[in-house]
Amino acid sequence: MFDVVGDVFAAEPSQIAGDTRESLAPSGVADTRPAVRRRTWRLVPVDSCSAFELGIHPASEPEADVPRLPPYVSRDHDSELRAQLRRAAENGGGTVVVIGDSSTGKSRSLYEACRQVLAGWQILLAEDPDGIRQARAASSERIVMWLDDTRSPRFLTPSGLTAGDISEWTGSSAQSGPTIVVHLLWPAAYQEIMAPPTVSRFDSRPSPDPWRSTWDCLSLAVESAVWVGATLTEIEKRRAAALAAETGDSRIGDALRDGHYGFTQYLAGAPQLIEHWKFGQASQPYGAAVLTAAIDLTCLGVRVLSSALLTEAMATYLTDEQFVEASPGAAEDALKYATAELRGGVRALRPRRGPQLGAHGGYKLDDYLQQRGELERHYVPVPAALWEVIGIHVTDMDLLSRLALAADDRGLTDHAFPLLSRTYMIDGSARGG
Fold first, then answer.
1. Residue 231 — pLDDT band, cuts 50, 70, 90?
2. Coil, strand or helix: which one is 394?
């Protein structure tokens, strides 16, 4: 019904009401000072970079004296990944693509490869495409541009980085030192980006391809994508068993014996995350409702989850009895449960960095819980009242338009129209009309 075009992924903190900077000075008078533009990128030496800075999951800690990061089990794809990085370094830069599901070891494999092949280089970590562009003028080092688009693309979106942006770093005319661009993607996103444009049944011509610029970015890779398997091969299992015997690290043996989650997923804290969500439905139904709301909101494209959005969304997942019998502090307790640190340091919901030191930027959902939750709730409709909560808290026009389209696709026209109408209200306010 609605003709809304846009990427279904990108969303930033300003899209959620309550996550933006206060507009009034302490005196109550409007603060007319220009906002300070926060730098959204940083360079970290490969040699001293912590694995956890790169989103690598900590493992459970059965004993007090073991390191949080278990010994690395060599994977079959390691030789190809390291060879591609080595060739890119020798050629003065290039693009490498790494594909795999959540918690399969993509980031750990790349981290170990960089430490072996690219010692002395710098890793460029940015929060968004603008951060990459900001860093362009300030960087002259040998750089690994780490573009993690696994949870949902933020760099590779129709409105994100272009092939021209990347070529400025890797092309022969680049003024900086050699740059290797590495894209990390989930298979579903990679397949959507690389799929040919669809042809309408009413028109023989292909539809405009919103992913064309993104496809161009990935096409800069001269070699095939490196695929990281979700399960260990038999050879990899033998390596893991040998390493467990050599190091005495019981976590590796426990992960090998687990028959439910998989080796890398077990080490990444998958059992703790799923149990926290599922068991909470009986022990802490309000906290579990926060996590279920976070899963559904993230799958709809809402990337930044504010406290106000989560607590109001939680109420739409409660039974009548749970809603009526909630204690005065139920919402606060639910959020504490959903954000609690679990064994091994994993969290189902993790705080986001705010615009200033000490400022809160909302929460983000663990990527494994997002992917697993999306599979389990694929055919479960979100509560109708959730669309009303979204209409109140989401303030970004593009995201509201996409959410309106999502509601309309589900046959919820009564909820889609208010969302679309709100985009015009916000647009008019922004123009002062």
1. very high
2. strand
Q: Are 222 and 298 members of one domain? A: no
Say what the alpha-carbon torsion angle 364, 365, 366, 369 is, to the nearest 10 degrees: -170
Please give the torsion angle defined by the CA atoms of residues 158, 227, 152 and 114, in that order, rounded to the nearest 10 degrees.
-100
Q: Quote the CA–CA distance of 255 and 205 in Å, as a whole number.
A: 51
- Say whether both 84 and 214 belong to one domain: yes
In total, the chain counts a number of residues equal to 433
**What is the secondary structure of 319-358 as a DSSP string?**
-HHHHHT--TTHHHHHHHHHH-B-TTS-BSEEEEE-SSTT
By mean pLDDT, which of 163-167, 276-280, 370-374, 400-404 is the weakest? 400-404
On whether residue 6 sits in a domain, the answer given is no
Rounded CA gap, 270 and 343, in Å? 11
Amino acid in position 149: D
Please report, for the domain that includes residue 62, its CATH number.
3.40.50
Per-residue pLDDT band for 173 (boundaries 50, 70, 90) equals: low
pLDDT for res 304: 81
pLDDT at 235: 97
* Rounded CA separation 206/153 (Å): 24
Instruction: Tell me the CB-side half-sphere exposure of residue 376, using CA atoms within 13 A.
Output: 12
Q: How much is the pLDDT for 336?
A: 96
Tokens of residue 324, six digits: 């009526």
Strand boundaries in 339-415, DSSP class E: 349-353, 360-365
C-alpha distance across the termini of the chain, in Å: 27
Q: Is there a single domain that holds both residue 315 and residue 221? A: no
Tell me the pLDDT of the chain averaged across its residues: 84
Judge whether 104 and 229 are in contact, CB under 8 Å. Answer: yes
